[in-house]
Amino acid sequence: MNNSNKIVISMDERKETESLNMLYLIDNEASLPDFFQKLTAPMKLLGDEEGKAGCYFLPNCNDNERSHYLALVRLPKAGDVPLAKWSLAEAYEKLPAGDYQLRTIIDDESQITALLLGWLMAGYSYTLAANNDNSSVKRLVVDDSLSLVRASQQYQAVAKVRDLINMPPNILTPESLADALVAVANQYDAEHQVITGQQLLVQNYPSIHAVGRAADTEHQAPRLAELLWGDPLHPKVTLVGKGVCFDSGGLDIKSAVGMRAMKKDMGGAAHVLGLAQLIMESALPVRLQVLIPAVENAISGDAFRPGDVINTRLGKTIEIDNTDAEGRLILIDALAKAVESQPEIIIDFATLTGASRVATGTEVPSFFSRSKHIRNQLVDIGEEQDDLIWPLPLHKPYMHELQTAIADLKNSGSGYAGAITAALFLAEFVPEDIDWVHIDCMAYNLRARPGKPIGGEAMGMMTMFTYLQNRFG
Length: 473
What we know:
Strand content: 15-25%
Oligomer: single chain
Mean pLDDT: 89
CATH architecture of the largest domain: 3-Layer(aba) Sandwich
Helix content: 25-40%
CATH class of the largest domain: Alpha Beta
């Protein structure tokens, strides 16, 4: 599990008596403390080459009062919150073990929060190894308790997302994913229910059941988990997350390479749990609903087949063109349920299409919205947060890709514009008078960067949270 809970502490929490290392943040040479101006020892570069933004250090320096390690972090640009965040994340990765007291000329609370969040995110790791070594602890000691609280709240949501995605599929089954929702609900005194197995048919969630019925053991059986929180009189916000805990592709089976990372196919569910945690922790004045259809797309004699025609909660029939286009099938029953309470906005997260990764790469989620105003706001917020998401068009003429002679829709098209046709498919289940945002994300870092280790990742979550704060806060 993640190990960053106590790597940023307040001065009051620190019990040790030995000297603190000092970590200075500067944005230009003129902001160096007087002590550094007098030093003659050459600065050694920890980060990029001399003259560029990066982390610098001076070992074993003596300021007549202290004799210990001193570090400098040069900010990429004064006042730049996202870059400042990753600058301190880089410092975490470069510095040796120890306690560091933060000293900076920055006095903006949001920038301090971003810096602390970067340090926390850099300290994250996930391992189930029996010989896990936690001896190289690096702790940041700060005086700003408000920034620490806010950074910790944001980090815990990110860690929630990362932990869930990183869990092996034999541990994170549909049952344990539903349990994760129940645990979050209990933490915030929210209502919750889980509908499992045959009860999905009884309560009219036939598409979720069809996808998940091949995995019929107690832990793997399909289910729909729901959370309700907040004053019923407040504006209604519904979050829907794709929860395919492992995706074999079904009878249209994936290759070994294509299947290897499919524990992450519940990344959408992880995102909405992290976002829900942020909403409830910050007491945002909304009536929150979270819906997670949790399944495993398995192969058995009872697996759904190419050519099948299945029913949906809304009553529309779907011809199965490809069993590996299963995520949209479980989402449509959850979206139909979401619509029934007439929320102000529905937001769904899903690791839905490889086509989205082709369009915007693995590090920038694509998103869809009918509202130009919402699209523009989300792009602006994403750029400000360094949590970029990018709009693709809901181009209705491409609906011809989903037409079939024997049902209302088929679940996949020719392969061209796959992210768009998947979004158009979902849009058929959300009426135009309800604001809707669909985020198609990778949810996984394929390369390591400061604060962003390889593995599960929150992508677009902070952007959506900031949007909801601006709209309903």
